[in-house]
Every structure is written in C-alpha cells, then in structure tokens.
Amino acid sequence: MKSLKDYKIILRPDDNGTFVAYIPAIQGCHAWGETPEAALCELNPVFEMIQEEYSATRKSEVRSQKSEVNYD
Predict the structure, then answer these.
(1) pTM passes above 0.85
(2) Fewer CB near the terminus (10 Å): N or C of the chain?
(3) Which residues contact residue 61 at a Cβ distance below 8 angstroms, ignoring those fewer than 6 apart?
C-alpha cells in the first residue's frame, strides 16, 4: 500500500483564512486547517480512509507521483 509521501500534495491558503491541503491524483482527498501544518496533519486520516475504501471495494490504487508539497 502506498503512503501519503508517495503523492504530490498541494497546500494553499483558502479564502476564509484557513489552509487547504489536497492530493490532485485522488478525488476527494483534501483537508483544511488553521495553519499549513494543521491542514497537512488533517490530510493523513482522510488519505487513510480513502485507501481503506479502495481496499474494501477492490479498486486499484491511484498511481503515485513524485512526493512533494507545493505551496500556492
């Protein structure tokens, strides 16, 4: 099973003063936080939940991209 570090993560400020972190390669894999660090921390359980769903439904894993965090 791939880990969060195997995917490209985008981190950007949101319009309401919070931050959003998301993985473009995985639909629905996004999280918000008061700080960039909090958004990244919240992304991990979302990623794990999606991975569990993929395993339960036998969907193939999303192809990973080079691990990086981009700040927009």
Answers:
(1) no
(2) C
(3) 1, 2, 51, 54
